[in-house]
Design a protein that fits this description.
Strand content of chain B: under 5%
Strand content of chain A: 15-25%
Radius of gyration of chain B: 39 Å
Shape of chain B: elongated
Distance between the termini of chain B: 86 Å
CATH topology of one domain in chain B: Cytochrome Bc1 Complex, Chain D, domain 2
Low-confidence stretches of chain A: 1-6
Mean pLDDT of chain B: 89
Helix content of chain A: 40-55%
Largest sheet of chain B: 2 strands, antiparallel
Number of strands of chain B: 3
Number of domains of chain A: 3
Largest sheet of chain A: 5 strands, antiparallel
Structural class of chain A: alpha+beta
Radius of gyration of chain A: 33 Å
Shape of chain A: elongated
Oligomer: heterodimer
CATH superfamily of one domain in chain B: Cytochrome c-like domain
Bound molecules: iron/sulfur cluster
CATH architecture of one domain in chain B: Orthogonal Bundle
Order of helices and strands of chain B: HEEEHHHHHHHHH
Chain lengths: ~475, ~300
Amino acid sequence: MSVTGADDDGPLYVSSKKVYPQKVTGPFRRMKWMILIAALGVYYLLPFLRWNRGPNLPDQAVLADLPNRRFYFFFIELWPQEVYYFTGLLVIAALALFLMNSIAGRIWCGYLCPQTVWTDLFLAVERFFEGDRRERIKRDEAPLNADTIRRKVAKHAVWLLIAWWTGGAWVLYFADAPTLVRDLATFKAPAAAYLWIAILTFTTYTLAGIMREQVCIYMCPWPRIQAALTDDDALNVTYRYDRGEPRMSVKEAARAKAVSQSAGDCVDCHQCVAVCPTGIDIRDGAQLSCIQCSLCIDACDNVMTKIGRPKGLIAYDTDGNVKRRIAGEAPVYRPIRARTLIYAAIISIVGGAMLYQLATRSTAAISVLHERNPLFVRLTDGSVRNAYTIRISNKRPENRPFAITVQGVPGAVLTVPEAAPTADYRAVVTIPPDTTREVRAFVTVPKDVPLQKSQDILITASDLFAGEVVNARDHFMGP
Amino acid sequence: MSHDTAHGNHELVAEKVDAPTGQTIRSHEWDGITELNTPLPRWWINILYATILWSIGYWVVYPSWPLVSDYARGVVGYSSREEVAADLDAIKAFRAKQASGLEKASLEDIAKTPDLRRVALAAGRAAFGDNCAPCHGAGGAGAPGYPNLNDDDWLWGGTLDAIHQTLTNGVRVAGNDKTRIGLMSAFGRDGVLKTDEVRAVANHVRTLANLDAEKNYDQAKGSKVFADNCASCHGPQGKGSIEFGAPNLTDGIWLYGSNLADIIETVTNGRQGVMPAWGGRLDPVTIKALSVYVQSLGGGK
Ligand code: SF4
Ligand code: SF4
């Protein structure tokens, strides 16, 4: 075994190079602004949207009521035992990411990820106070002066304000928003609210203001996962080197063409590098650091328009197509293929199942627990009785009377000592709004009915007004 | 993505560059295996240092180092033991509030008011498990000699007040003048009845409950002995009496067993089951809660 060389080549740790993304305009930039406004608008304002649910329930459209263990989303009210809806949502979210990825790469990273959205916003603030790329670089290179300090202080102040507002909006999802805003302003809100605001202010400020592309390159798992998910047909922001190489200036190209040498369309102006929020060169090919924000497409298209060459030197394309064009073949685009169809199918199956479940979701629930000590008793008249603990949940915002009955054994009668029986001898239990109640019930079978050791029974609770019926299976034990 | 080396635009000037990635290669090598030079970002190591500093903060703020006879208590004086004590106090205060509700209300009102009833059932269930379950069973199913509390047969009465009275003063508690006392004496052992009389009356008792008797037992003797000795407490038809704690002999419920041998044993040696008086041992609110809970088991009477 041979070991050569000493471990003296370079440091183990390097300071990150500061990235100064340049301003860019174009259709992708415009779309990103629209998504940013929509996403942040929803995030900041949603807690204030009201939704009438009747007198006994909160009227906030989206609310995670942790103390009472309820989650409200418009017309949906979820109880803790229904968290599987969140599991379903997570499954759909993961598959949606996969689907996006197999159609057009890191759509999530480029347009939708909070890290991208907030960083975009923070960059806009930075640009507003410190100027565009060149000016910022110059400022940072020059010795500090009063103007620079003033601008930097203003920038950080606005960043902190946005970050604080971000944390502030977060806590509003966990309590009645208008009340909490008032309490926060008058310093009467619970300590946890202030703490969470502080934590989220800190994370937003650090991640979007200071860490930025470092989060995507070093901290986030998604670039690694997506690298494993992509395939030859997935579109990615691609530099079409078949068209771009060899790169040379407009003048050189004219000269090369005159002597019928090949000349690429890339004029090596570095505009794509200047606008890149992660500070990389797309012309090096697909790479982990590229969040596929498409801003280099806008930048390059602007250059091409200016010099009168067709747009799309950088565009959504595949490496395979670039190679095909070099080989003189026609490019192939296959957005609809087994992979995307399977993802779409699973999404619609899971989504459909959830919708069906939601639409047919009952607003009552019953569970029954058989008394085990004793399993049964014989009463003085010789009849046999089993005791059960019955829990009924009323998920509606009003009082609901439920008639509890039993089926499965001839002559069996269900009684609830604490409930008044109706005229037809059914036990009726009234459950208060949005509550679960437990009652002890007896099922009695007359003396002369033949009984096995155990027989199946069905206990039913039916809402006397709305007619909703819920069932639970259990057993009736005999001697 | 191998095209990029052809036109790569790298600032790194090192001896060796890895063609597919464009990264420099560190100079060490093991049998031809080399390593890409991928330095970590500086902030990464800085975060490690920051967490070390943060941990020092923990030593200062929270209990940390063991000392010779004590430990470093930390400036905020946090103690998990005190936290538990505070939680327990909070629970006690909460229970006291609930208990005062039970204290003021009558047994009937507790049983009828849903909120009070729920509190009483919860407290009663806990107290039952602690105090009653050893004899009556976890769910009150009982055992021979220890009544089943789930049926509709109550030796000393199944109303809330009767149960409360039994719980408070117990059964056959010496020195308690309010205790439940019933006399099932040892008719055989004390010589009041002879062996054949015991057998005859035992057979007679079985017929009261529609159970088979021995074919040739002396019916006349059986009913005479019963009328002379048993009817005073159990009633002429054997229907029993709550006043004396005398069980109903005509139903299907037998505390000490319904076999002929069991009944002969009962008549010969008597039965003197006891239950402690909980009056002095448990506080009045707990006894109230227990009364409501015990009645709920079988629905009372
Ligand atoms: S790399 Fe991670 S953090 Fe960065 S944009 Fe993509 S998902 Fe968001
Ligand atoms: S290379 Fe282009 S698409 Fe990738 S992050 Fe940079 S600007 Fe965005």
